[in-house]
């Protein structure tokens, strides 16, 4: 039988939002239910009620973040009205907005990508959480390959341009954006 998913509630969403920020900032090992309970002025038991354990909370928060990030990237890379350079500019702007969320001056070095942060802690993650990170990598690659191929087919590049090689470079940059 499948995993039972609790209905969304305001407290559940508050827990997830705070957990996302704390996990991004402090990593998997740096966040506890106690930290979340203190900031939300609730009890650890309340957090356990909503998520059971830390692993379940992290799995859900990470899966939601991956879904949201992929949806944003796919909506950009799938646009027919932008050349590839415009799509890259849009993706850079998405990253800048996320960076500014955790680095308001725009010049800080605080972690800003939950995906990059969880990759650093991947050995501590559950198989479903690691699968979410892998799904992000696979689907990002698919989206970029399709965008590069479409750009080549529209005449933005020479017909002989190696689509997979160019896409590999763009995916590598996107996957390294947070540490850079």
Mind sketching the topology for me?
Layout: H1 10-26, H2 33-40, H3 44-51, H4 54-77, H5 84-102, H6 114-120, H7 127-153, H8 163-176
Summarize the structure.
With 180 residues, the protein is mainly alpha-helical. It is 69% helix and 0% strand. Helix 1 (10-26) packs across helix 2, helix 4 packs antiparallel against helix 5 and helix 4 runs parallel beside helix 7 (127-153).
Profile the largest sheet. none
Helix content: 55-70%
Q: What is the beta-strand fraction?
A: under 5%
The number of helical elements comes to: 8
Global Rg = 18 Å
Give, in order, the helices and strands: HHHHHHHH
Mean pLDDT: 93
Keywords:
single chain; 180 residues; mainly alpha; 8 helices; 0% strand
Structure description:
This protein is mainly α and 180 residues long. Helix content is 69%, strand content 0%. It has 8 helices and no strands. It has helices at 10-26, 33-40, 44-51, 54-77, 84-102, 114-120, 127-153, 163-176. It is elongated, with a radius of gyration of 18 Å.
